[in-house]
């Protein structure tokens, strides 16, 4: 994917997080290739800033996350910071609070998100990938959560997503062993959705992103909201939110445009209202 990193964009965390937009697609790049894109606390916070900026950019309809360097998506949290920032429960709490606040932005993101994975996707990298709506990977990528090899507990949110994607038994196998699996296995167990040869990965990811960005934003929002509610316990579900977005779709100019464009055999132009 090397050619695509020539694009200049807005830097965060001293350039270790990059952000740019292209044709309605926002792109965030984890850019610490010397450390296989391991995430320092500054990078988590820069990631949050980039997410916020793309969330608030009305021209952006979908966000793609990727790693620079061709070797990793994200190899997890930066272990070299652990001695200072995560050496015991008290220190770890502050670290978790600050990094979790950024992941919460992704968990509640109002726009569709895609993780484009080329290489290692480990630990905290898996957390990011699992929080994205869709995961697309290169053939030779590797996935794992080596918490048991480090002696740390992977938190509730990460495991909730893992269990919902691969089921409790695979979650246990991955967590108890800390093993790494390849893209073929990850695809088979439902951890990722699509796999491509590495030289096709970016083009295929952008094709999916552009397809999403050209579809009706309110209809996509309805799907995103409703699927999130499906995953909640019944007692926690906000059925009113589902009703409200359903009504917003039916009353939208885009629904009118969608109907008309179909009848007139032309491509619809959606405005998101
Ligand atoms: N934190 C800090 N530094 C990391 C890192 C991490 N999570 N992952 C990789 N690095 C650093 C390595 O220390 C090495 O630094 P050096 O060049 O100064 O020695 C550099 O990145 C390259 O890593 P290396 O192990 O030589 O590359 P590799 O291609 O052989 O293996 C990994 C890559 C990602 C498989 C391996 O580095 C690894 O297992 N990393 C730790 C993953 C992990 O435990 N993540 C969970 C953290 S909660």
Automatic annotation (TrEMBL):
Keyword flag Lyase: yes
Coiled-coil blocks: none
Enzyme class: lyase
EC number annotated for this UniProt entry: 4.2.1.17
InterPro entries the UniProt entry points to: ClpP/crotonase-like_dom_sf, Enoyl-CoA_hyd/isom_CS, Enoyl-CoA_hydra/iso
Gene Ontology BP annotations: fatty acid beta-oxidation
Highest taxon of the lineage: Bacteria
Name of the protein: Enoyl-CoA hydratase
UniProt keywords, alphabetically: Lyase
GO molecular-function terms, A-Z: enoyl-CoA hydratase activity
Organism listed in the record: Bradyrhizobium ottawaense
CDD domains, per database record: crotonase-like
Family to which this protein belongs: Belongs to the enoyl-CoA hydratase/isomerase family.
Pfam families: ECH_1
């Amino acid at each position: 994917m090397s050619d695509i990193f020539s694009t200049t964009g807005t830097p965060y965390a001293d350039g270790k997080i990059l952000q740019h937009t292209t044709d309605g697609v926002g792109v965030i790049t984890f850019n610490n290739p010397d450390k296989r894109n391991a995430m320092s606390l500054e990078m988590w916070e820069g990631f949050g800033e980039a997410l916020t900026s793309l969330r608030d950019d009305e021209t952006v309809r979908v966000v793609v996350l990727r790693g620079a360097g061709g070797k990793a998506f994200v190899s997890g949290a930066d272990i070299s910071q652990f001695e200072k920032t995560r050496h015991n429960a008290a220190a770890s709490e502050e670290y978790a609070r600050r990094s979790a606040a950024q992941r919460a932005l992704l968990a509640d993101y109002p726009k569709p998100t895609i993780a484009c994975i080329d290489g290692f996707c480990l630990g905290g990298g898996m957390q990011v990938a699992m929080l994205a709506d869709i995961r697309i990977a290169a053939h030779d990528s590797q996935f794992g959560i080596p918490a048991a090899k480090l002696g740390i507990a992977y938190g509730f949110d990460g495991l909730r997503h893992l269990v919902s994607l691969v089921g409790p038994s695979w979650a246990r196998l991955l967590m108890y062993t800390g093993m790494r699996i390849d893209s073929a296995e990850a695809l088979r167990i439902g951890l990722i959705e699509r796999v491509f040869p590495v030289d096709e990965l970016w083009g295929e990811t952008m094709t999916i992103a552009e397809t999403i960005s050209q579809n009706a934003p309110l209809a996509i929002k309805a799907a995103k909201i409703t699927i999130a509610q499906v995953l909640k316990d019944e007692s926690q579900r906000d059925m009113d939110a589902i009703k409200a977005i359903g009504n917003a779709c039916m009353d939208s100019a885009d629904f009118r445009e969608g109907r008309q464009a179909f009848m007139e055999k032309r491509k619809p132009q959606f405005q998101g209202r």
